[in-house]
Amino acid sequence: MTKVFVNGVAQTFDGDADTPLLWWLRDELGLTGTKFGCGEALCGACTVLMDGTAVRACQTLVTAADGLRVTTIEGLAPNGDHPLQKAWLELGVPQCGFCQAGQILQAASLLKDLPHPTDADIDAAMSGNICRCGTYPRIHAAIKQVANAGAKA
Amino acid sequence: MNRPLTTPDAIENVSRRGLLLGLGGGLILAVGLNGAALAEDAPEKFGADGDDNGWRDDPRLFIAIDETGAVTLTNHRQEMGQGIKTSLALVMTEELEADFARVKVIQADGDEPRYGNQDTDGSRSMRHVFLPLRRAGAAARTMLEQAAAARWKAPVAQVKAQNHAVVHTPTGRSLTYGELAKAAAALPVPPRETLKLKPASAFRYIGKDAVTGVDRADIVTGKAVYGGDMRPEGLVYAVVARPPVAGGTVASFDAAETLKVPGVLKVVPIDPPKEGPPFQPQGGLAVVAKSTWAAIKGRRALKVTWNDGANAAYDSDAFRKTLEASARQPGKVIHDGGDIEKALAGAAKHVTAEYYLPHLTHVSMETPTATVRARPGGGWEAWAPVQAPQVTREVVAFALGDKAENITVHVTLLGGGFGRKSKPDYVVEAAVVSKAMGGAPVKLTWTREDDIQHDYYHTVSLERLEAGLDAKGKVVAWRHRTCAPTIGSTFGPDPKHEADDELGMGAVSLPFDIPVIRVENPEAESHTRIGWFRSVSNIPHAYAIQSFVCELAAAAGRDPKDFLLELIGPARKINPRSLDDTFNYGESPALYPMDTGRLRAVIERAAKEIGWGRTLPKGRGLGVAGHYSFITYTACAMEVEVASDGTVQVIRSDLVVDCGPVVNPDRVRAQAEGSVIMGMSLALTGQISFKNGRAQQGNFDSFPVLRIDGAPKEIHTHLIGGDFDGPLGGVGEPCVPPVAPALVNAIYAATGKRVRDLPIGATLKS
Question: Closest by alpha carbon to B739, among B688, B684, B665?
């Protein structure tokens, strides 16, 4: 029996040991904010936080999350008002929006490790997350906006 | 893109005005009429009038107001990132004189007999329904004003709607929309010729950046619902094993190991396409399970032998040689502007170049997916991310042996479309599987490999251009042979020639001032499923033409921007028909001529913005390209740096858009930004190749797209704007075509190396 704290709630899993975290979150727990994009950790659409650090849920087994905290987009901030979410709204980042949960969680992981990232830091941290609509310039700007606001605080 | 006119079983509404005005009377239905028969009897129709099922402007279809004053607007076009759901809502809100903060937008089901055309493609939603939806808003506003006037027993001339209320001007009394809603709803809809639209000077929403996208808050919190996010009671999950070669079939299979996988419920055969409408599934075997993961594992365990069929030998390297051989011979003449042989023979200098662009795949971040179940009480119900919901109903109905009116299609948000989701084969698969499961709800998911290996691909093309220049370097002869498998091959027997709409995407619609122009279209066969990809044939045509102009400038020893402007010539309006362009994006050649003044202006602006002519460090260069497509004029200027190892980095991009009047400026800028990224992707790395009929790419490792580290840090968009009395242009597609040629022209300026084959890939690294 695997026990995972998903968005602060203890959840148990006793399915097949090879089950990726992605499909458990989506099909069993109904947390559909986490998206399937490639299944091979190549696009970042399924990014979630595991103890605060970004992982690809399509290539992370549920059993690997045993005893850990998993945060999906639904659980990033109680009222959806995380500084990154607010910046995403203000700058009009999303187009189709499908990849944006993964982008935001990846950015949250980046800012946890590097509160004041350089342009190169942002590129390095975010280059695993594909956006086919091409919202990269605004993603970059939104992360900088949050980092700069943090610097002033 | 326009739906084919000859879809079997289609019901063409040939009296759209009758339906609009009659609301029950005067509607004439003609079953199975084809385009030719219609064209003989009916005058030529343009714009929204020419769309299947036309347009509607009845406010009761789109606008509801309850007694609290809450406004609910119905969006009948599909949202895939272009922002149409927000943009159409703000158009209606504007004329309704409502407060956008009190507006909720809901998504219409697919139902064209009710809403008019709902196909969301061809960069035409706003262009086609801007005026009808303004009228809908104005009609509702008028009804509210009439209700208030009646309440006050005052003349209507004394009342005025403003900001969600109606004011009695002489006394200042006011009634809220909530207070008036019931009485207004009981009034007849005013005739459209009596409606007064707001002057542009009074706009609060149209043309302003005044609102936030309607789904944006849900998107950033994970609440937004996409194609795979519905979870009806009793849901089962499916993936499909499809023939690896287009046109192939299942020869035999063994499901024993699959059925041993825990969670797998059943293996369901899906028939190959039958004679009937396009966009039927390719056939294969669906694995149905209690979870997506179990279905994926079950499919891995499936043993299938395939018949590869007629396309078993498709090999892109060999096919390129076939295209080259075809393009080096005379082809079907599309435009004959004079004696080309004589003009070429008399020229002082000749330049010939061939440009090759491979197949592309869409890879929207959301792979094709749909959920379908039997509807309680009969019929079927789908939740699906589709660009063409009415087409979806028709093809699902055909596959299930039912009628389109018994198929409900709830359209979710699309996680990207780019033309892929105009073809609903994936919804039909889910429907067929649901039927085999006794009507149980089935969520069918395409893996990324399914998506990349079973797409309706952007066509491969070979563009051969020849020009003659006189002693002064002026172009006196131009011959373009465009050679590419046609999308028409998806609709029936392969025509082997590009259709009018494909040729009208830049090949014949050539706004150049050259004495003799000839456009030919040699034969090309299709060996896979070909389909619309954002910007469609504009991609190869603009790439080849705008690259070739830069090559000609070099041959003439001229500045490429000046040379391009000279080739376009003076500002004038060209009737597309005079160029044998019968397409013109379905728009009237009188209302929408090609305006070379506007094309010149976007090119000049792009050059100015990037600082054309400035001195650059070694390894850097500037390039420019301009193009007319989807009734919009665009130009891209780029600054690139090519490192000594051949790595290309775009330092800056300036994209100029003249789409006429701009309804939602921020979303137009967003489309332009995204188009630069997509244009760079296709130029730098985009390629689908085939061996033994099989696509050789499978995921983002083998079909790479641009990532954030490759995106320009300086990305600028410039909107020209226009008078709201003038016609609107498209936005979603026309920014893509100039990007790739601007990029290779800049590479040439930086290195002296001319890239003709796409993708650029590693070609500069040798």
Answer: B684
Whether the predicted pLDDT of B761 surpasses 70: yes
Q: Are the Cβ atoms of A38 and B262 closer than 8 angstroms? A: no
Yes or no, beta carbons of B221 and A85 under 8 Å apart: yes
HSE (CB half, 13 Å, CA atoms) of A85?
A: 20
Interface test with A, best of B82, B365, B715, B735 (most A CBs within 10 A): B365
C-alpha atoms less than 13 angstroms from C-alpha of A90 in its C-beta half-sphere: 13
Quote the minimal CA–CA distance from A45 to chain B in Å.
Answer: 8
What are the C-alpha distances in Å from B194 to residues B142, B203, B561? 10, 20, 49
Contact flag A132-B364 (C-beta cutoff 8 Å): yes
Q: Domains of chain B by range and CATH?
A: 1-43 (no CATH), 61-219 (3.30.365.10), 236-309+368-445 (3.30.365.10), 316-360+456-765 (3.30.365.10)
**Domain CATH number, residue A87:** 1.10.150.120
Out of A11, A42, A75, a domain closes at A75
Q: What was the ipTM of the complex prediction? A: 0.98
Q: Which of B79, B82, B220 has the CB atom closest to A100's CB atom?
A: B220
User: Nearest Cα to B622, choosing from B656, B652, B655?
Assistant: B652
The confidence band for B103, taking pLDDT boundaries of 50, 70 and 90, is very high
In terms of CA atoms, which chain A residue is nearest residue B680?
A134
In a shared domain, residues A91 and A35: no
- Closest-CA residue of B relative to A23 is B293
Supply the pTM of this predicted model: 0.95
- CATH number, domain containing residue A63: 3.10.20.30
Percent of chain B with pLDDT over 70: 94
> What integer pLDDT is reported at residue B41 of this predicted model?
58
pLDDT of the residue at B725: 87
Query: Side chain identity at B703, as an amino acid letter?
Result: F
Confidence of residue B1 (pLDDT cuts 50, 70, 90): very low
pLDDT score at B42: 67
Q: Tell me how crowded residue B604 is: count the other CB atoms within 10 A of its CB.
A: 17
> Same domain, yes or no, for A8 and A70?
yes
Are residues A134 and B678, on separate chains, in Cβ contact within 8 Å?
A: yes
Q: Where are the alpha helices (DSSP H) in B616-721?
A: 665-684
Burial B232-248 (b: 16+ CB within 10 A, else e): eeebbbbbbbbbbbbbb
Pick the residue from chain A with its C-alpha nearest to B676.
A134
User: B141 pLDDT band (50/70/90 cuts)?
Assistant: very high
- Note whether A85 contacts B709, CB cutoff 8 Å: no
* Length, in residues, of chain A: 153
Residue of chain B whose alpha carbon sits nearest to that of A33: B222
